Amino acid sequence: MSTYQKVILKARPRGEIVPDEVFEVIEELIPTEDDVPEGSVLIKADFLSLDPTLRGQISGVDSYVKAVEIGAVMRGWGLATVVVSRNSNYEKGDSVFGVYGFSEYAIHNTEGLRKVIVPPGINAVDFCGVLGMTGLTAYMGLFELAGGVNPGQKVVVSGAAGATGSVVGQIAKLKGAYVIGIAGSDEKCNVLTNELGFDVALNYKLPTFEEDFKNLTKEGFDIYWDNVGGKILDLALLQASNYATFVMCGAISAYNSVGPPPGISNYFHIVTKRLILKGLIVRDYSHLYEKALNDLTSWVLSGKIKSKNTVVSGRMKDAPNALASIFKGVNTGKLVLRIEH
């Protein structure tokens, strides 16, 4: 009989993810129809979303979700196909999006699972990116936390060449803002300005970055989207306009830290400039997903925003290495594993 692969969390990472130390790949028999309980479905993974937030979810510390337990299938989400259905709301062949873990096949009770109909002109992989949780995160952060973007405002995006940042900048530009992106290579900066429409992009690894950033923001800025934390966030606090809003989405510079990351030296500017810093968890806005997805789909179909994906292909055994690669900056836009069966 045929087998499938799944990935188990076997140890907590300390510092960078070392895949062979942290994860274990297991092969098991593919479940049969008889294995699927009434009300559930058997799904086959097509595209696995790979996200920096997964690093925090294997740290052993509960946050807005419980940490993945040792011995459990690694948490993950993406696009899949129903191959067996014992639920009247789903049929064999349906495309679905949901949490199914690092597993090529999974029996799913359908909680949180939603059907996906891929319209003409849309790539299925985009439901892991611009039309998935990263696109929704960008949308909710700008329109709900930041209160919208107005023409002429200045928006700064750190981690701008990543999955969420690349969408944030495009939406802000669509709404008439002047958009500054920060990324980790000249190649990524060229993508931001030449492909995605950012007004300017800065490579934070260059020795002139701090001076260049200060020159570009000498008159301040209105919205700062933080995907990175650390020294770049500290610099942004120094340069922000009075009453600027900071959307706190991530802190990838510290995800692999051993021990507490360095503190912020420009903290008191939050007081003197009356800054607003708000944490963003996209699931808080699930009641707005339908409208957001309608807008995002319309913008993609009209070419007003572009999807940007880095797609790698392989079996589920390749997922741990792909996840670890995010923290080495290998991806531009959304990183997705296309599952080969």
Would you write up a description of this structure?
- There is one protein chain.
- This protein is an alpha/beta fold.
- The chain folds into 2 domains: 3-129 and 308-339, Quinone Oxidoreductase, Chain A, domain 1; 133-283, NAD(P)-binding Rossmann-like Domain (Rossmann fold), CATH 3.40.50.720.
- It has helices spanning 19-22, 53-57, 133-145, 163-174, 186-194, 209-216, 230-239, 269-272, 289-302, 319-326; strands at 3-9, 23-29, 41-50, 77-85, 95-99, 105-108, 114-115, 154-157, 178-183, 200-203, 223-226, 245-248, 276-279, 309-314, 334-339.
- Strands 3, 4, 5, 6, 7, 14 and 15 form a 7-stranded mixed sheet that branches. A 6-stranded parallel sheet has the order 10-9-8-11-12-13, with helices on both faces.
- Helix 3 packs across helix 4 and helix 3 (133-145) packs across helix 9.
- The model has no long low-confidence stretch (mean pLDDT 96).
Describe the structure in brief.
With 341 residues, the protein is an alpha/beta fold. 26% of the residues lie in helices and 24% in strands.
Overview features:
alpha/beta; Quinone Oxidoreductase, Chain A, domain 1; Rossmann fold; 2 domains; seven-stranded mixed β-sheet; 10 helices; 15 strands
Mean pLDDT: 96
Q: What is the level-2 CATH architecture name of the largest domain?
A: Alpha-Beta Complex
What is the CATH superfamily classification of the largest domain? Answer: Medium-chain alcohol dehydrogenases, catalytic domain
Largest sheet: 7 strands, mixed
Strand content: 15-25%
Helix content: 25-40%
CATH topology of the largest domain: Quinone Oxidoreductase, Chain A, domain 1
Record field, number of beta strands: 15
Query: How many domains comprise the coordinates?
Result: 2
Structural class computed from helices and strand pairing: alpha/beta
Poorly predicted segments:
none
Q: Distance between termini?
A: 14 Å
Number of helices: 10
Radius of gyration, in Å, reads 21 Å
CATH class of the largest domain: Alpha Beta
| SSE succession | EHEEHEEEEHEHEHEHEHEHEHEHE
Q: How would you describe the shape?
A: globular
Pfam families: ADH_N_2, ADH_zinc_N
InterPro entries: ADH-like_C, ADH_N_2, ER, GroES-like_sf, MDR_fam, NAD(P)-bd_dom_sf
Keywords: Oxidoreductase
Protein name: NADP-dependent leukotriene B4 12-hydroxydehydrogenase
